[in-house]
Amino acid sequence: MKPAQFSYIAPETVEEVLAALAEHGDEAKVLAGGQSLVPMMNFRLARPSVIVDIGRLAADESLDGISVDEGTLRIGARVRHRQLEHFPANGLGPADGPLGSLLRGLARWVGHLPIRVRGTFGGSIAHADPAAEWCIMAQTLGAEMVVRSSTRPMRIVAAEDFFETVFTTSLEPEELLTEVRLPVLGPDWRVGFCEFARRAGDFAVVAALTALRIEDGSIVEARVGAGGVAGTPVRLRAAEAALVGAIPTPAVFHEAGLAATGEVDPSGDIHGSAGYRRDLTGVMVRRALGAESIPTPV
Amino acid sequence: MTESSITGLLESDCKTRLRLSVNGTERTVEVEPRRTLADALRDDCGLTGTHLGCEHGVCGACTVLIDGNPVRSCLMFAVQAADVDIRTVEGMASPDGTLNPLQESFMRHHGLQCGFCTPGFLLLSEAVLAARPDIDDAELREALSSNLCRCTGYQGIIDAVRAVRDAV
Amino acid sequence: MNWVGRSLRRVEDPALLRGQGRFVDDFPHRATARFVRSPLASGVIEDVRGEAFTVADLDADGVSEIVCELRRPDFVKVPQPLLARGRVRYVGEPVAVVVGSTPEEAEDLAEQVELDIRPTQPVVDLDSALAPDAPLLHPEATGGNVVVEGSFATPGLAEALASAHLVVDMEITSRRQCAMPLEGRGSVASTNPADDRTTLYASVQSPHMVRTGICDALGLPEVDLRVVAPDVGGGFGQKLPLAREDAVMVWLSRRLGTSVAWVEDRAENLSAAWHSREQRYRVKGGFDDEGRMLALEADILCNTGAWSCYPITWGVEPLMALGELPGPYRLGEYGVRSRGVCTNTCPTSPYRGVSRPVLTLAVERLMDSAAGRLGLDPAEIRHRNLPEEFPHRSPMGYYLDEGSYRQSLTAALAEMDMEDFRRRQADARSKGGRLPGLGISTFAERTGYGTPAFAARGMSVTVGYENVALAMDPSGYLTLRIGASPHGQGLHTALTQIVAEEVGVHPQRVRIISGDTDNTPYGWGSFASRSAVLAGGAAQIAARELARKIAALAAEEMEAAPEDILLDSGMATVAGTSQGRSIDELARIAHHQPQRMPKGLGPGLRTEAGYDPAGTFSNACHVAEVEVDPHTGGVQLKRFVVVEDAGRLINPMIVDGQIRGGVTQGIANALLEEVIYDPDGNILTTSLMDFLPPTAAEIPDIAIIHLETVTDSSITGAKGLGEGGAIGAPAAVINAVNDAIAHLGAEVNEMPATPERVRAAIRSAAAAIGDRADAAGAVERSEAA
Ligand SMILES: Cc1cc2nc3c(=O)[nH]c(=O)nc-3n(C[C@H](O)[C@H](O)[C@H](O)COP(=O)(O)OP(=O)(O)OC[C@H]3O[C@@H](n4cnc5c(N)ncnc54)[C@H](O)[C@@H]3O)c2cc1C
Ligand code: FES
Ligand code: FES
User: Fold this and answer.
1) Ligand 3 geometric centre to CA of C696 (Å)
2) Nearest 5°: CA angle at B115, between B109 and B121?
3) What is the DSSP letter of C595?
């Protein structure tokens, strides 16, 4: 289980990365933390002929930073899962709130410690596993991906246009994901998450993420998303509709769960049949909605 | 063969000369870009204490410390490790062979049987305790769930690490 | 000084802890081999193009097939070529082999080999293999794909079932498993041109047997092959049978005149090393109104995969299931048919416990089911059926020696605090949410059996005995050479304790040499919970004899009677006096002043011994507490208690490690691990993301209580226990899951009881009641409320 041959380049500037990507086109692959790409290379399921390692780039605010700017949180593509896990409480200042706890809480669900030490936020987004926590978050909260290349002006792609299908995004071969932007969630938001996996650290069979904005005791805005139920993470609009305008009670969450089950159309694999995944979706949504805080994996 | 630098494009079928710092010693290896760090340590440095149990990131038998952090060496290429501090199981005991407290504790608590997973668990545990000397039992179990052992049922491993934590 | 019975630290550990273990892949070699494996489950090989060796090259060198058989009329004997000849029969079957200078290059070369295989219809599961028009796997199996069929019945079976107060009829299924040692298989072969001898370092459990198997296939005299099992990174049965690949490595090394390595990667290990335990049992138990089992009838099917395994054969699973299904229970009538069925899947071999994890599940499910219907407590029904008098004769005619079957059950339940549990369970059920369940499994583990037991199977290669050679050197240190070969279980430590105790020296003075056919007497290795009993027994006999010689010399030196000599703490003393000689000094005399040795003893201090007992039964009771999430079907282990009786414990720490490791594999079998094929015979579980060994987060701490029933069936008093953990745990876990969901009318009789299966059982129970107001629906709403 050894990778096929490839040439390797580790540029020191983003411009060189972009140039290398432009030069080698779909022969090339960006190497970030390697926690998804290298297993696939070892299995020879991926066989890029050029690896462009972004690990040697000089530190760069856009790629490496976590910052808040006018209601938007920016997470650099090279930020490692581990940094998010240990991001200090109130690290985002007044904007920390529900979003900060979501980031810290979700990070712990991403694989295991050694995976989180190397794996990057941007790598997870670019890899686009439909059950990946960060992808679910990006889809549910409506993230925007900042994408650069040497041949086109920078573009900003909405999550729903970014994730296309399993392991496939709208990134062109010569493009580099540099940053992901998320809307800051004010204190009136309540976030929840629930994941079902077979073992500690495994990818979810199904996971759901919810965010509710509550005003005067009733839900005025709802975002519900799930992973493991389609080729990409999905927004669950029927579940959202069941929530908006209602008072958050277990019965309402139960209804939202039923709506979620009704609206997904998963396909099955060895980790769960279509029917099982559909059932789980409702359970995960219901539990995420009812969660007091982001649960820990073990 | 290119010289000891990883600038520019390293051709797929050319070997690059690299200096790796392993357990405080500089070693020079000549490797293709595709050689994993695990294979470079084992085959090029002769440090066979780092084991391969899956080569896809799940088992942790290949765990080494990179700048103090536990990392799957099967998921890194040697060319990525040119200027980092690598620690392997061979660097744990003192030069005269005296076991370090974790190794000693694994022995006392029967934290190993066949020993194939052991180097990975030792390095993982060392990093976990260094970062969190007061880690609680639940989090310790979670952290140790990073690696697989097929022989012990984990209890001996957990007991061994707990004992070292509690001794501090 | 007593050394036996103490939890001494293991002599194996320091090197392993320093990273100085020597596993197969650590041995230097010039070249790396890679096998080109079949991508199809069934097909005709039309052409192999590329730089590769195929069976034609083996044929040209006169290499023959691997052959082994059970001498019984229903056994189908199929010789196995070292590389596929003419047809491929499973995905992963080795078709050709390439050699490169590095592992990467070998993989490149293997990719370049083009296999032109015309697909034919595969048979993958039991039902399709048994269908009347099923394609036949092997021309030798003319009557269908059944390759071994045993049956047995006591005369009164039908009547006992007909007149039983209650007949419980159920189907138990075990999905396919893989032993998956953390180190895969592998070997390094090198040939010395000076003497034309080949050395094979191989990760195996039985180096002598491997040598015999390879030499028979290659037509080599055994003296020309040295097989060495260095540190072995776990085996659990998967490294017991002869691997075709190992034989090919010897051939390659001789053909190429170089050293060449084959190191299996994980995908190969999961798809092309041996699988196990794909079994289905239809069992009927007849009970009287007090819950006594009167009769047991079973029809058993085992999917053997595509080929028989050397030397145990593909009869191992079906015939063990047939023989041992009744377990320890007293029952009058027993009838069984058990068939091995070959299919286009990876061949199977013994895996820790062989069929017993499944047959124990079958009988323990029967017990629980009968208890439920008769309104009995699960513990009570077992008490009524477990033996009290020993030896207890099983319906098949085995004799279970003295054990603590009932006591272990009582002790386990006391540890669990049943009353408290039932209170918590009732409480949880009324509240909704997670459902606690508790499951019991009691069983007998047949261990440490020698030649007679294996000869009864009619094996063409009858395994069984163990031999050792013990010598004290002039410095007073001892070397014990054993034919057995450990694979990580701490055998060396246990043997040093036995020898040290007999000879009266410190265990640090004893070295064990194992796993090297050049340096050890012929023997079998580690399997069937036998090495501590057999190698331990032989070591004790040898050490006693050596002690007798030392005592005789001491007596001569000190002019005392040999009976009066005590050997302890490195000294030979004359009882009741202050007279003594150090054993070191006596060792010198024996070697360097042989004229001073008593007549007939000298020179030197050496003994040899063998041990070949009939066998002994350990027993144990496992109790598992689980929590079932009725909405996801997820199962969490909360507690696990083992009460184990393995006779006298040589090193309790090592024993506990064996139990915990075995239980962990049993839990994995019960809940997580499953090898999955699609209907075309493609294997879908070739990574550890798909085949799911448990992590520390899925395994609870396991409490162990020891009972020690003295046995004279084993000269050390030790019974084996290497497999017990794996045998008992699945039944305890599955019974616990069923206990948790029984009030919903749901039942799961399949392992692994995956979340989806548990959830489906709850769902179909709900559907059977036909109304969402049933219990499962109520639980659902209770969470919402
Ligand atoms: C055992 C194990 C368990 C895991 N469990 C989980 C889990 O539970 N949840 C989860 O979410 N993940 C899990 N992962 C995957 C892990 O999170 C990865 O880190 C992540 O998916 C990829 O990030 P990376 O930085 O390692 O990317 P890489 O592996 O380096 O790259 C992944 C892909 O993204 C592309 N890419 C990377 N960065 C960029 C960029 N900036 N611009 C354009 N393309 C880019 C690469 O070319 C490649 O195609 C697991 C991994 C392992 C080995
Ligand atoms: S070998 Fe690297 S994680 Fe298994
Ligand atoms: S001790 Fe064998 S795998 Fe852990």
Assistant:
1) 13
2) 70
3) G
What distance in Å separates the CA atoms of residue A193 and residue A105, rounded to the nearest whole number? 9
Distance C325 CA to ligand 2 centre (A): 39
Chosen for mutation from C7, C17, C231, C655 (greatest number of chain B CBs closer than 10 Å) is C17
Between strands A7-9 and A28-31, the pairing is unpaired
Interval between CA C183 and ligand 3 midpoint (Å): 9
Q: Which residues of A fall within a CB distance of 8 Å from C634?
A: 196
Q: Cβ–Cβ of C108/A4 closer than 8 Å? A: yes
Between CA C316 and CA C774 the distance in angstroms is 45
Condensed to tens digits (0 to 9), the pLDDT of residues B19-38 reads 999 999 999 999 999 999 99
How far away, in angstroms, is B51 Cα from ligand 2 center?
8
- Give, in order, the Cα–Cα distances in Å from C17 to each of A253, B105, B112: 52, 10, 9
Q: C353 to chain B, minimum CA–CA distance in Å? A: 15
- Please indicate, yes or no, whether the overall pTM of this predicted structure exceeds 0.90: yes
Distance between CA atoms of A46 and A40, rounded to whole angstroms? 5
Same fold, C20-120+185-263 and C351-448+614-784: no
Return the partners of chain C (3 or more C-beta pairs < 8 Å): A, B
Which stretches of C593-743 are DSSP H helices? Answer: 652-671, 724-741
Burial of A89 (0-12, 13-18, 19+ CB in 10 A): exposed
- Look at residues C270, A282, C316, C611 and name the one whose alpha carbon lies nearest to residue B55: C270
**Cβ density class C180-209: b for 16+ within 10 Å, e for less:** bbbbbbbbbbbbeeeeebbbbbbbbbbbbb
Helices then strands, each counted (H, E), chain B:
5, 5
In a 3-state reduction of DSSP, which class is residue C330?
A: coil
According to CATH, the topology of domain C351-448+614-784 is Aldehyde Oxidoreductase; domain 4 (3.30.365)
Residue B147: domain span:
101-167
Q: Are C548 and C498 in contact (CB under 8 A)?
A: no
From the list B93, B103, B113, which residue is nearest C490 (CB)?
A: B113
Q: Record the tokens describing residue A111, joined without a space.
A: 């694989």
Q: Which chains touch A (3 or more CB pairs under 8 A)?
A: B, C
* B136 in any annotated domain: yes
Location of structure tokens 């002929």: A49
Q: Does residue C776 carry a pLDDT above 60?
A: no
Q: Which ligand is nearest to the CA of B60?
A: 2
Q: What percent helix, strand, coil does chain B show, rounded to 5?
A: 35, 15, 45
**Superfamily for C20-120+185-263?**
Aldehyde oxidase/xanthine dehydrogenase, a/b hammerhead (3.90.1170.50)
- For the segment B75-85, the average pLDDT, to the nearest whole number, is 96
- Residue A213's pLDDT is what? 97
In a domain, A27, yes or no: yes
Helix, strand or coil, per DSSP, at residue C41:
coil
What is the DSSP code string of C608-640?
Answer: EEEE----EEEEEEEEEEEEE-TTT--EEEEEE
Give the number of other CB atoms < 10 A from CB of residue B129. Answer: 20
What are the sequence ranges of the domains in chain C? 20-120+185-263, 351-448+614-784, 465-611
* Phi–psi pair at C436, nearest 5 degrees: -75, 150
Confidence tier at C759 by pLDDT (50, 70, 90): very high
User: Over the stretch A166-225, which tens digit does the pLDDT of each residue have?
Assistant: 999 999 999 999 999 999 999 999 999 999 999 999 999 999 999 999 999 999 999 999
Q: Which of C107, C676, C698 sits opposite A2 (nearest CB)?
A: C107
- The reply to whether residue C693 touches residue B150, judged by beta carbons under 8 angstroms, is yes
Cis-peptide, bond into residue C391, ω within 30° of zero: yes
The set of protein residues with a Cβ atom below 6 angstroms from ligand 1 is A 29-37, 39, 77, 110-111, 115, 119-120, 122-124, 126-127, 129, 132-134, 171, 176-177, 201-203; B 57-58
Q: Locate C118 and state its tokens.
A: 């015309």
